[in-house]
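Problem 12. The chain below contains 355 residues. Write out its predicted structure in token notation.
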Amino acid sequence: MKNSENKTILDYETVDFNKEENCLVIIDQTLLPGKTEIIELKTAQEIWDAIYLLKVRGAPAIGVAAAFGIYQLSFEIWKNRKDITCEEFEKQFLEQKEFLNSSRPTAVNLSWALNRMEKVLRKAQEEGKSVEQIVTLLGEEAFRMKEDDITTGADGTLVPKEGVVIIDGQKPGDIHYVDVNGDKAITADDRVIMGNSEPKFNYFANITARWKGIDLEILFQGVRGVEAYYGGNFAVPLRLDGNSTTPQEFHLDYWTPENPGAFFPRLTPTPGNNSLSSDYWKFDASYCRVKYIQLGYTFKQDWTRKFFVNNLRLFVNFQNPFTLSAESRVDPEGRGGHTTYPMVKTYSAGLNITF
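Solution.
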């Protein structure tokens, strides 16, 4: 427990997590506004009491406290017995989950957060993760929930957290834009320069090598230091205005309450505000493309002339065989535009004969 008389409430997070001590840290809200006291909760009972006695208040704070709490207790389970089986870990996890949930059974955000953490456990089990890996994933999810800008309303639906500035009509799962100028509204005045679409460095090389009768030629080119943005149907594939296209497999990673860490926002029949130009869609478009590989072999003339052939060469040719890039969803050379036809890979073989 830390008594902080020289600082104000604005100097602290309402709910936080001390990684060094592995404990939940909250502001005791029962003492406000007269006193600011920071409490470190190190046991399941202390976490339960803090929620039950309203030392942590408000739907968002309760949800985050629950997520950090169940992660903290899960870490202690693994720390105290590192050879624990996944089945025994699951049993103890569910016991701790039910215990924390009993502190305020009617708090919607409490059960929502704990259920969300359980889904992480279930998914990790399906993927065959170890207990240590499961605990790590639980921690990542808890910190992700702390950064979320949504919470659960009194009716159980997801709503923006208090104070979060959004565009009218936006819902959980939409892109959250930054109120740059701080006027509590998202307008054209919040626009900023996002970077340069021109590469900082272009390169090209042609390599040839010969050894005895074998010859090899490689041609590649690329760019470095260039930014691009998903656009059009790559960003929002479903459009009821007639400009829709066939969604790709990577579009399946869209936001749902069960998949809050998705790459794409929630599915909507029209693009809405999610198609606005922003750095949400930005990606590193640097790449190195092997344009051409040819491998050949020329037979010795003292052998080919026996068949009245002056020169005989076999070869295989690969055009655009592969590209090295941090971007895997789209062709980086297309800069994220859905109207750019990707490079075609061509494989061929041939025979050169001279009589």
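Discussion. DSSP finds seven helices and 13 strands in the chain. Students who got a different answer should revisit the alignment rule from Section 12.3.
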